[in-house]
Amino acid sequence: MSRQAAFAVGGNAILAGILLMLVGDFMFALNDAMGKWLVASFSVGQVLLIRSFGAFFVLGPMLARQPVSALYRVEKPRWQLARVVLATADTGLFYAAVAYLPLADVMTFYMAGPIYVAALSHFLLGERIGWRRWLAVLIGFVGVVIALRPSSAMLSWPSMFGLVGSMSFALTLVLGRVLRSTPDATLVTWQTVGCLLTGALLSIGSWSGFSANQLLALLLLGVVSCSAHLMITRSLKLAPASLLAPLQYTLLLWAVIFGWVFFGDFPDRQTLIGAAVIVLAGLFIFHRAKVKDVEPLVPNDASHG
């Protein structure tokens, strides 16, 4: 193959990766909007339980192609368990938060994921972070405080759900880096099982009847989320993470649009300012990681969706 042909093939792969990332982010935002709609009628536990069954419609064919031993012969079992617990907390707390807060407000907390990851990677993975990135981390935290609103309201339960959920999300990402040699299907399967068991436990005493259409919507929630995850996983194999990582912020744009169109919510000025500070700090962290030749994590590697 000539150099020109190889360049064309590489360029097409990168373009495909970008498109898959954009579509995957759109589907995650759609999943978030669906989740907000469903938790208005059903408990968080019920949503977690039934969406997990829906996810297995996508996971089933993947699991059929790998040996059963891939599920139980895993590296670092304690870290695997910790990741399942954190990923389940991330998903459950996200749905608990959107039950009370606008989509864009909750997504603003989750967009701080790269900022938390940068700080946690220093302490948990021993990665060196220069003063510029530490400054960006500090500025990002300021953005979170602005979005939280520096008043008694920042201690409200919905805000705490969003904040703790986003931190669980960041820790899940860091553990994903620790467990990078574990097959993606295995990670997602145990993550889904964790949500299923937690959903079953939380559903006790808070179960609501549903129509056939509502059951379909609950199952579709899992299908959409799992499909989006697979798209983004594939995109990372086609294009560099440093190129794809900033595209995650389209999630915030879709959250604003879906929140406005479907729920009549539009973020106020304080939320928008906080979101802007977080996005700028996150983009700078990505930029410095690229300069230092460190591939940044894409938060959707372990999306809450």
Automatic annotation (TrEMBL):
A Pfam family this chain is assigned to: EamA
SUPFAM superfamilies named in the record: Multidrug resistance efflux transporter EmrE
Transmembrane domains' residue ranges: 7-31, 37-60, 81-101, 134-151, 157-175, 187-208, 214-232, 244-263, 269-286
InterPro entries per UniProt: EamA_dom, EmrE-like
GO cellular component assignments: membrane
Domain called EamA: residue spans: 16-148, 160-285
This protein's UniProt keywords: Membrane, Transmembrane, Transmembrane helix
PANTHER family linked to this entry: ACYL-MALONYL CONDENSING ENZYME-RELATED (PTHR22911), BLR4310 PROTEIN (PTHR22911:SF135)
Protein's name according to its UniProt entry: S-adenosylmethionine uptake transporter
